Amino acid sequence: MTIPIPAEDPRHVPNRAVIDPSAITQNTRALTGLLEEHTALMAVVKADGYGHGMLTAARAALEGGATWLGVAHPASALALSRAGLDVNILTWLYEPHTAETVLPEVISSGINVSVGSSAMLELVSAAARQADRRARVHLKIDTGMGRNGVLPEQVREIGAAMREDDFIEIAAAWTHLTDADDPSDPSTDQEVARFDSACEALEEEVGPIPLQHLANSAALLTRPDLHRDLVRPGIALYGYPPVPTDVPLRPAMTLTSRLALVKEVPEGTTIGYGRIRTTDRRTRLGLVPIGYADGLHRVASDRCEVLVRTASADSRALQVGRISMDQIVIDLGPDSDACAGDEVFLFGDAEGAPTGPAATTADDWARAAGTIPYEILTSVAGRVSREVRA
Question: In order of start, what are the domains of the chain with their CATH numbers?
Answer without folding.
Answer: 21-238 (3.20.20.10), 253-388 (2.40.37.10)
